[in-house]
């Protein structure tokens, strides 16, 4: 066993001369003291007794050993203090421990004391003693514990490094995100500033143009006013001269009559002749009949015609002009219908004025009008006299767009063929609204307040010749009832239509085109027999609705189908197979078609008829199946998808040796590498310059 002594015990044993009782290594130190070099100086020698030492006021006997501080031993030798550091022995043990205030470690495993350091005689190793086995098992256990501890420390260190790496990566990612966000914000700010600058510049440009236009209009109005005043003054002077000439001629004639007949045959004085109004002189003047004396002038007639034309121009209000048989008074700031008296006039445009009423005799001076444009005024229904338009026996076209009408004007001429009342406030179509308009061919009532609730189903019954009807931008939720059988084209875009019943087109069997874009239709809202048996319906526009599939039961005669801007995710198989002769134009742009959206049978029935196919702006990852079988295809759009590869036979059939049929092929904005496209992939395209491949997206 090891022997442990504290400093006080060592000093006590040394003072009392019991050095032999100290451990061997301390005795060795004491025996070697005379040979040890002095390590500390400044320690006083005791002046009274020889061989005694004084250390910090304490008297030490000769050969006394003490430790003033850890790892330093001091010895009193012949009255002189000698100190040196302790050298730690080499320990032959597995586990070591350094106690507090000790300078050398000690063994903490139950190993047998080494006689070299303990001073005890070596104990004989008795054969068969189980101590070695126990010590070996404990050492193995400690080795395992040590390895486990080292493994735990290694794992902990690896985890710490992994956490630090993750923190660094997260910090780097956050930094990049922050930089990207700052870049986006900066770009957005620059874009906003640029847009604001452009808007300011555009507003300034508009203001400048409006100011220039206003000044130009003011100058033109002032110039026209001055010219009109000058012309009126010239006409007045001419009329006055003519009147004076007539008076002179009359006086001369009277004198001649008196000279010829004498006082007996003198004629009674003629009534005074009223001077002709220059503003009505030309309007009342009738062309001379052939054979009259004026024709004897011959060569002077063109000058007279030219003078008459100039006089007609001066009779028009400011801002109006005449060309042949058409008078144009657009944006002339007129407050009413100008009082014209030009019987041969055929067309009159009064668009963009401030007209509010149409009185009964507004068109009496122009009874042969065939076309009137009263668009963009402020005409109200109550301001139109029932007799205002009735007398126009040749009127065929009447435009009243952009007014404030709440109902169809009454007593319209039966000769009317085209009527436009777009962008008004029409709230009701009564049963007799179109009474007598049996010749009407075109009717437009877009941008009003019409719905199936305020349109009488019998209202369209008198329209026996109606072929073109526009009812877009209203409030219809279903197809209007009572449409005439003569109808060929129907436009109902931008309404609220949610369903198409089986009876919707029963009476319009001749209809050729139906436009229903921007409504609320889906594949379940169309009745199966709504139009599947129609033999004349060739064009159908269902774009910008709520379709998720290409609808079934489409018209058999369909040639032109538009389904762009929906949510279409799939084209069912055989959906076009029943069409005769077959679909020619199909537009499916801006949908959600992906790699699984198109089946091998999706285009069945169109292989010999399809001419134009648009599948751009979808999510296709490859060329859809069946395209290479379309032998009549001329235009193919596959741009703005996610296509990454094109096989040799995806677009063109290598076994088909017919002439190239594709005229244009769009493949830009995909993920294609042009270098990896097979050389024969575009063999059916008439010209390689017709293939658009650039730009492509970055993978």
From TrEMBL:
GO CC annotations, alphabetized: extracellular matrix
Keywords: Leucine-rich repeat, Repeat
Residue ranges with Basic and acidic residues bias: 138-226
GO molecular function: collagen V binding; heparin binding
Region described as Disordered: spans on this chain: 115-226
InterPro entries: ECM2, Leu-rich_rpt, Leu-rich_rpt_typical-subtyp, LRR_5, LRR_dom_sf, VWF_dom
Source organism of the structure: Cyprinus carpio carpio
PROSITE patterns listed in its UniProt record: LRR, VWFC_1, VWFC_2
Domain of life: Eukaryota
Protein known as: Extracellular matrix protein 2
This protein's record includes keyword Acetylation: no
All copies of domain VWFC, residue ranges: 51-108
GO biological process: extracellular matrix organization; positive regulation of cell-substrate adhesion
């Amino acid at each position: 066993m090891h022997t442990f002594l504290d400093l006080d015990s060592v000093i006590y044993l040394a003072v009392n001369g019991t050095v032999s009782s100290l451990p061997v290594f301390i005795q060795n130190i004491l025996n070697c003291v005379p040979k040890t070099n002095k390590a500390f100086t400044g320690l006083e020698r005791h002046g009274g007794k020889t061989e005694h030492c004084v250390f910090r006021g304490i008297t030490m006997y000769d050969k006394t050993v003490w430790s003033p501080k850890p790892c330093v031993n001091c010895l009193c030798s012949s009255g002189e203090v000698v100190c040196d550091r302790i050298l730690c022995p080499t320990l032959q043990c597995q586990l070591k421990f350094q106690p507090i205030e000790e300078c050398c470690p000690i063994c903490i495993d139950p190993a047998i004391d080494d006689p070299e350091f303990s001073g005890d005689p070596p104990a004989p190793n008795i054969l068969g003693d189980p101590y070695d086995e126990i010590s070996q098992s404990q050492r193995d256990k400690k080795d395992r514990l040590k390895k486990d501890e080292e493994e735990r420390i290694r794992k902990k260190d690896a985890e710490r490094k992994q956490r630090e790496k993750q923190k660094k990566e997260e910090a780097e990612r956050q930094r990049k995100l922050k930089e990207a966000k700052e870049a986006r914000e900066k770009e957005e700010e620059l874009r906003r500033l640029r847009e604001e600058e452009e808007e300011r510049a555009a507003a300034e440009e508009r203001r400048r143009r409006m100011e220039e236009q206003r000044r130009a209009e003011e100058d033109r109005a002032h110039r026209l006013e001055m010219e009109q005043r000058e012309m009126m003054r010239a006409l007045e002077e001419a009329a006055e001269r003519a009147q004076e000439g007539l008076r002179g001629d009359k006086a001369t004639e009277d004198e001649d009559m008196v000279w010829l007949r004498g006082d007996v045959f003198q004629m009674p004085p003629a009534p005074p002749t009223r001077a002709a109004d220059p503003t009505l002189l030309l309007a009342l003047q009738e062309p001379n009949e052939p054979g009259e004396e004026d024709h004897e002038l011959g060569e002077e007639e063109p000058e007279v015609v030219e003078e008459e034309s100039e006089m007609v121009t001066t009779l028009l209000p400011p801002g109006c002009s005449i060309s042949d048989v058409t008078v144009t008074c657009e944006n002339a700031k007129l407050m009413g219908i100008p009082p014209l008296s030009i019987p041969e006039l055929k067309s009159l445009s009064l668009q963009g004025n401030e007209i509010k009423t149409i009185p009964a005799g507004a068109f009496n001076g122009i009874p042969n009008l065939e076309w009137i444009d009263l668009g963009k005024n402020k005409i109200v229904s109550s301001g139109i006299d029932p007799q205002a338009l009735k007398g126009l026996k040749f009127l065929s076209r009447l435009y009243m767009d952009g007014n404030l009408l709440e109902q169809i004007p009454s007593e319209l001429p039966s000769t009317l063929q085209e009527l436009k009342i777009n962008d008004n406030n029409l709230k009701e179509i009564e049963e007799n609204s179109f009474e007598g308009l049996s010749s009407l061919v075109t009717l437009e009532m877009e941008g009003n307040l019409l719905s199936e609730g305020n349109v009488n189903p019998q209202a369209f019954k008198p329209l026996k010749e109606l072929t073109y009807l526009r009812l877009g931008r209203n409030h219809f939720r279903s197809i209007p009832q009572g449409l005439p059988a003569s109808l060929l084209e129907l436009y109902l875009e931008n309404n609220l239509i949610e369903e198409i019943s089986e009876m919707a087109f029963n009476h319009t069997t001749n209809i050729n085109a139906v436009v229903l874009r921007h409504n609320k239709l889906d594949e379940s809202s169309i009745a199966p027999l709504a139009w599947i048996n129609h033999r004349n319906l060739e064009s159908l526009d269902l774009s910008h609705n709520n379709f998720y599939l290409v609808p079934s039961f489409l018209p058999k005669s369909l040639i032109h189908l538009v389904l762009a801007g929906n949510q279409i995710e799939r084209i069912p198989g055989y959906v076009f197979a029943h069409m005769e002769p077959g679909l020619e134009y199909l537009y499916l742009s801006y949908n959600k078609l992906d790699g699984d959206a198109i089946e091998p049978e999706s285009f069945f029935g169109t292989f010999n008829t399809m001419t134009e196919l648009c599948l751009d702006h979808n999510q296709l990852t490859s060329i859809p199946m069946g395209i290479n079988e379309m032998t009549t295809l001329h235009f193919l759009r596959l741009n703005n998808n996610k296509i990454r590869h094109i096989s040799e036979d995806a677009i063109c059939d290598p076994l088909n040796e017919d002439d190239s049929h594709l005229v244009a092929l769009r493949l830009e904005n995909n993920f294609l590498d042009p270098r990896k496209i097979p050389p024969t992939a575009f063999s059916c395209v008439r010209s390689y310059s017709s293939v658009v491949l650039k730009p492509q997206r970055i993978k």
